[in-house]
Amino acid sequence: MQTKNKPIWLSCLLSQAVWAAGLLILLLLSCAAANASEDPGSMIRPLSLACLYFSALISGFAAVRFSGDGILSGLISGTVTALLMLLLACLPLPGSGFLFPYTLLLTACVIPAGCAGALIGRKQHKHKSPAKKNNKRKR
């Protein structure tokens, strides 16, 4: 029994909920890891960027699993995530300390992370190699 896949736009929106939940969990874990170190201030940027990219990878994985589509769902999911991050960067909150061009570059790197998640998450079709087929025929 096959299930009907969701439209690509709906799967990308659902993957943003997965992104937010994954980001929250990863940030909590990284805060605990930074708090346990001697100098937590030096670990804030690398850990937060790692959480951002890994959660974007998870989001791309979820998008391709929800839609059943290929890399396009990861690309759209990564783009939506990057746009959300740019919107958050425009809020009048304390910044990351990066200059705006670096912020744009680091945010743009979210898109390939979403595509990588889609590549990892796509379902592989099991094809038998011709050599295995020939061996079965000979028996």
Characterization of the model:
By secondary structure, the protein is an all-alpha fold. Helices cover 73% and strands 0% of the residues. It is built from 6 helices and no strands. Helix 1 (8-36) runs antiparallel to helix 2.
Topology (elements, then pairings):
Elements lengths: L7 H29 L7 H24 L3 H19 L10 H9 L1 H12 L8 H9 L1
Helix pairs in contact: 1-2, 1-3, 2-3, 2-5, 3-4, 3-5
Residue-averaged pLDDT, rounded?
84
> Which strand-content bin applies to the residues?
under 5%
Which regions are unreliable across 5 or more consecutive residues at pLDDT < 50?
none
Which structural category do the helix and sheet elements fall into?
Answer: mainly alpha
Q: Percent of residues in helical segments?
A: over 70%
> Which sequence of SSEs, written as H and E, runs from N to C?
HHHHHH
Assembly type: single chain
Rg, Cα atoms, Å = 19 Å
Name some characteristics of this structure.
single chain; 139 residues; mainly alpha; 6 helices
